[in-house]
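Reminder to self: keep the SMILES exactly as supplied, no canonicalising. Ligand is zinc ion.
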Amino acid sequence: MKIKKEICRHYGKKIFEWCIKKYGYSKHYKFISELVFRKKDACGDKLKGEHTDCDEIVVYLDEVKNISDLVKTIIHEYTHYIQSPVWFQRYYKLEKTFENHPYEIQAEKIAERDFKECLDDILKQ
Ligand SMILES: [Zn+2]
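Structure tokens returned for the bound complex:
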């Protein structure tokens, strides 16, 4: 079952605010990332979220299955906002793939470590 769009937006905002409080602002961007929700065009991959070059955190509504999934996706992408975009690209040029890219591994680790704490906090509000 898919999570409803309105619920996604409602909790997405809270999760995003939680991330700002927890991790602070990035040193690498002048502005704070923006959280946007998009429908996935039919390109086939199972990407749930993305941190774009124009500094948006995109959540693909169709790919997010539940609230935990939404929390993990936003924490993961927020971590990319904190990380250096220069090194992010550099690693990919060193032929790092999604599986062995140090920044991807770090983002997954943080998402797995913190999603329960975030979930508890936003459900209490
Ligand atoms: Zn990532």
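Points to follow up:
The chain has a mean pLDDT of 89.
The beta strands are 34-38, 49-51, 56-60.
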